Amino acid sequence: MHRATAAGHIPDLIRIGREINNGMARESANRLVRAMTKAGHQILNARVLIQGVTFKENCPDIRNTKVFELATALQEWGMEVDISDSWADPDEVDHEYGIRLIQAPKGTYDALILAVPHSNTISAGSEPLRALLKQGGLLFDLKAAFPKELSDLRL
Questions:
Q1: Strand 109-114 to strand 47-51: parallel, antiparallel, or no bridges (unpaired)?
Q2: Rounded to whole angstroms, how far apart are CA atoms 41 and 52?
Q3: Local structure of residue 40 (DSSP, 8 states)
Q4: Which of the chain's termini has less CB crowding within 10 Å, N or C?
Q5: Which pLDDT belongs to residue 18?
Q6: Which distant-in-sequence residues (6+ apart) come within 8 Å of 38 by Cβ?
Q7: CA 38 from centre of chain
Q8: What is the per-residue pLDDT for 7?
Q9: Total structural domains within the chain
Q10: Where is each UDP-glucose/GDP-mannose dehydrogenase C-terminal domain found (predicted)?
Q11: pLDDT, position 6
């Protein structure tokens, strides 16, 4: 976009696409809040687990990830957010973002957001993720990694 602008072109399509991408963390948080409200969940102090923090699946790289923006958007709603990722280096995440990755306890969360569908997570199926939820908890599959009927909410 910078090069196109420097060359005298106004890249509206690129700019609009970037604006949409930059707003997806907040939009995802808003969609989860609407779904939780509709399902009768309390938003304030709700516990949410974000599964996956890396930039893309099956890669330990945390540069350019939008997951921390998603966590911040959820926290702005008054939710308590934990993050778990089997591929990310916990020390690097703590050093770069000041966030400690956790091993999620079963039956703890009001909602779980599958943000990065690593193959080891997907190959295990949705049941291990659902086991982390409280009774009636919502599974939000951001990447449509599972068939539609296995998730409560998708983008």
A1: parallel
A2: 23
A3: T
A4: C
A5: 65
A6: none
A7: 20
A8: 72
A9: 1
A10: 49-148
A11: 73
| Residue 155 within a domain | no
The strand pairing partners of 140, in sequence order, are 113, 153
Strand partners, 84: 51
Q: What is the 3-state secondary structure (H, E, C) of 58-108?
A: CCCCCCCCCHHHHHHHHHHCCCEEEEECCCCCHHHHHHHHCCCCCCCCCCC
Scanning the structure block, which residue is given the tokens 């910078």?
A: 2
C-beta separation of 49 from 80 below 8 A: no
Which structural domain, as residue segments, surrounds residue 63? 7-144
Whether the Cβ atoms of residue 83 and residue 62 lie closer than 8 Å to each other? no
pLDDT at 24: 76
Q: What is the CATH number of the domain that holds 31?
A: 3.40.50.720
pTM over 0.85: yes
**Cα Rg, the chain, nearest whole Å:** 17
66 - beta bridge partners?
Answer: none
Ordered mean pLDDT values, 10 residues apiece, the chain (155 residues): 68 63 83 97 98 96 94 97 97 94 95 97 96 98 96 94
Determine whether 70 is exposed, middle or buried from the number of CB atoms within 10 Å of its CB (0-12, 13-18, 19+): buried
User: How far, in Å, CA of 40 to CA of 149, rounded?
Assistant: 20
Q: Is residue 2 part of a domain?
A: no
Pairing of strands 47-51, 133-141: unpaired
Look at residue 129 and tell me if it is in a domain: yes
